[in-house]
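Run: sequence + N-oxalylglycine -> complex structure.
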Amino acid sequence: MTDQPGAAAASHLSARVAALPPAWLRDNCPCPECRDPRSGQKLFQITDLPHGLAVGEVVEPAAGGEAPVEVRWVPDGHRSSFPVTWLDAHRPADSALTGDRRTETGKELWTAADLTGRVPEARWDDYLAGPVRRARVLDAVQRLGFALLRGVPRQEGQVLAVAETFGHVRETNYGRLFDVRVEPDPNNLAFTSARITPHTDNPYRDPVPTLQLLHCLENSATGGDSGLVDGFAAAAALRAEDPASFAVLTRTPVPFVFRDDRTELRADRPLIDVDPLGRIREVRFNNRSIGTLRLPAAALEEFYAAYRGFGELLLRPGLQLDFRLAPGDCLIFDNTRLLHTRTAFAQDGCRHLQGAYADLDGLASSLAVLRRADDLDALTGLFHGPGAAEYLGEEVTMAEHMLQAGALAEAAGAPAHLVAAALLHDVGHLSGHAAEEAGDGDHRHGQAGADLLSRWFGPEVTEPVRLHVAAKRYLCTAEPGYRAGLSAASEHTLRLQGGPMTEAEAAAFAAMPQAAGAVAVRRWDEQAKEPGAAMPGFDHFLPLLTRLLRG
Ligand code: OGA
Ligand code: ZN
Ligand code: ZN
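>> structure
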């Protein structure tokens, strides 16, 4: 009760860490012994952890600081550092609120009226031109289940190029791509001029293709209009109106079959698939390819009543979004959620679509990678902010200095994490945290920079940054002639930073796991003060930095 607010906040953090399940916390240790610095992959097995694992001691950062929390483990004495931002972002939570983007909770369900004036569409040229527009289209596919690209070149095979902008084509028995037009001897009703009612494609495949693309090359026939129905919205309506039927459809495996001369496919899946928490995850609906169910007679009655009820619901006016594909349009849609339809068409003109399949995981991955650049906005901002403009006593600005250091590391063929460390080694100066501490002689900017960077990167990046000031003091002792090469400003700060290390300090430094990286960064640091040198902009390094972001 007499605690100061800062102390209360700090001890609260210790209590929070102590309350976390030890096996979970240790499994997430980011140190280079536990995770490979290059790939970020774990280097240990769950069975390698000692029995009786427990948090021995929690060492908290100074009040208000950005330093990670250090955990000392018993019985093995291992040490882990967890950024407070990481602990905040990964608090224990109800899994119903987090996780799987495939289920209804990760989606925006719709009826036709909901999309009036906001059908997700983009011009092909704009889509290709920039990551923002591209992300918006992919996000629409993930969230609404579809997007329409317009002005896609009307070339045979172009649908494959569209799929390859965000993922990988899924080849099937219909080929890498398939032509949707009237065929003389069709193996599928799609290849006639008949009406096709709302359905998902390839329900007889396991796994089912999760994305479908339809690219319109010609559409001059009378009829042949398109429609989309949100199957998740329909399933949610069924659950609300007739929960018993919904339950029947989630628990009855339905045989879907397809056969022609060369193919015989079969998958047994429910019409509505829910995840382990009961959330709608996949809808499979195709009247053309439902096979013969074999179940007890009462269960068949129950299934057919529920199937019919769902079928009627799917045809309910208002659910279906109607539109007409024009030549150059390419529709991308979630084949585990949306049902697609077309009206019958006359043979008075030509209707020719090309289709292909792809998968949602690849699309989600492309979208996540496009969004990584947003995560780094704050860091990018520091490079363009006022702090980057000058570098006391040097002839280059702070931003130029760091860009030169990054470029030198890259030219030397350094691994990505050291290029990043070189590029970012002085962010402690930019962020304003070190400035407050300029009075105590500058030796904090490595610390402040590393703490700031722990928001984005693991120790393979942060520790060389933390140690780059110590590396200067080390090199002055360990390497004859090194000190003579320092710039005047660097010589000045050396004294403020404590001067060269003693022999004993130097030996202890050299034994640290990140010492070699810190020394490498230090050398690029010294060289990166060339006025007028050509250097890449910060954007040049974004792909490298985004690859290093911790998950
Ligand atoms: C299909 C299909 C719709 C159309 O090929 O899977 O449903 O508009 N085609 O022709
Ligand atoms: Zn279809
Ligand atoms: Zn520097």
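>> summary
The CA atoms of residues 17 and 58 lie 7 Å apart. The chain has three domains: 5-92, 112-368, 375-548.
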